[in-house]
């Protein structure tokens, strides 16, 4: 067997070792990110990932957002609430629609929008709260109108939204509900980009019982648990997002039928039967459980400053 020349072998070994040292940290970082709990991984990101074009990736409740932009915390007809959550991010079409809704509603006399959670900078699962809001196409809007004053940062954390329901009831309090709130939801539902709107069943019933004339928009308004102090706007998957998974279309009609009546039976509100066995701690959703592209979104570069990714700033 021929003897290997040490003069050629050692330089190659040193070179290979150096290359491995340079590659390994990045490889390890990506591997760890893919195995990390998704809530912590995405919740820790303060800025979006830079992207040539925005993309919603995956499903509303299992995905992420590339190329997201921020809704400015103050606008002529809106204020963003709960700033500490850093959830005023979304697909540019979502942010644009919120600004449009604020303008259109103002023409009808609505004082302005108080905007709740939209999405995290890179979407993904959240540390607290929502199962959805992961792909930048969901937004919560309070049913409390914006006051004339500008809230301080502290007030944006502490001011409470107002429930539209009677105390200990599934029904709307007529002292709180106004035609202006109906008009606000109608405006939101009228936009073709909007796929559906979630409200409490009591609010849906209020709309069913009082809306006259054109009722075609009511079909987009869907009853769901919670949602008694805000309504939840959801957009369709937008062009340019081939990996966005759509939700089944809403059923035909205005939704003021047996499907609504079910919410006023005992069934939706029954507590779950206690299990004989102690409950197992649920396995956390990992980054690797999300669409594969979400690992790249998580590890991608950030802009130099938030000023670079505020909607309408550039």
Automatic annotation (TrEMBL):
Residues 1-33 form the signal peptide. Gene3D superfamilies: 3.30.1380.10. Keywords: Disulfide bond, Hydrolase, Metal-binding, Metalloprotease, Periplasm, Protease, Signal, Zinc. The keyword tRNA processing does not apply. The keyword Lyase does not apply. GO terms for molecular function: metal ion binding; metallopeptidase activity; serine-type endopeptidase activity. InterPro entries: Peptidase_M74 (IPR005073), Zn_M74/Hedgehog-like (IPR009045). NCBIfam families: PRK09429.1 (NF006947). This is Penicillin-insensitive murein endopeptidase family protein. It comes from Brucella grignonensis. The lineage of its organism: Bacteria, Pseudomonadati, Pseudomonadota, Alphaproteobacteria, Hyphomicrobiales.
């Amino acid at each position: 067997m021929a003897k290997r020349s040490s003069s050629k072998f050692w330089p190659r070994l040193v070179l290979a070792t150096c290359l491995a040292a340079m590659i390994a940290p990045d490889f390890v970082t990506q591997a760890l990110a893919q195995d990390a709990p998704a809530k912590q991984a995405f919740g820790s990101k303060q800025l979006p990932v830079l992207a040539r074009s925005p993309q919603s990736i995956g499903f509303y409740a299992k995905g992420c957002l590339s190329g997201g932009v921020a809704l400015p915390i103050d606008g002529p007809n809106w204020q963003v609430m709960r700033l500490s959550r850093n959830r005023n991010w979304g697909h540019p079409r979502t942010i644009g629609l919120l600004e449009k809704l604020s303008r259109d509603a103002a023409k009808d006399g609505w004082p302005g929008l108080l905007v709740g959670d939209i999405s995290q900078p890179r979407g993904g699962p959240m540390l607290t709260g929502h199962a959805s809001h992961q792909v930048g196409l969901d937004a919560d809007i309070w049913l409390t109108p914006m006051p004339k004053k500008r809230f301080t940062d502290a007030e944006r954390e502490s001011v409470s939204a107002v429930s539209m329901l009677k105390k200990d009831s599934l029904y709307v309090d007529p002292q709180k509900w106004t035609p202006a709130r109906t008009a606000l939801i109608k405006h939101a539902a009228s936009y073709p980009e909007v796929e559906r709107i979630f409200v409490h069943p009591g609010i849906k019933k209020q709309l069913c019982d009082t809306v006259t004339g054109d009722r075609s928009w009511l079909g987009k308004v869907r009853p769901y648990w919670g949602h008694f102090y805000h309504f939840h706007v959801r957009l369709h998957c937008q062009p340019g997002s081939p990996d966005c998974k759509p939700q089944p279309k809403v059923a035909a009609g205005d939704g003021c039928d047996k499907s609504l009546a079910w919410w006023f039976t005992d069934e939706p509100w029954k507590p779950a039967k206690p299990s004989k066995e102690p409950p197992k701690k649920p396995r956390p959703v990992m980054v690797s459980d999300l669409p594969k592209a979400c690992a790249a979104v998580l590890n991608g570069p950030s802009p130099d400053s938030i000023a670079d990714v505020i909607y309408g700033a550039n």
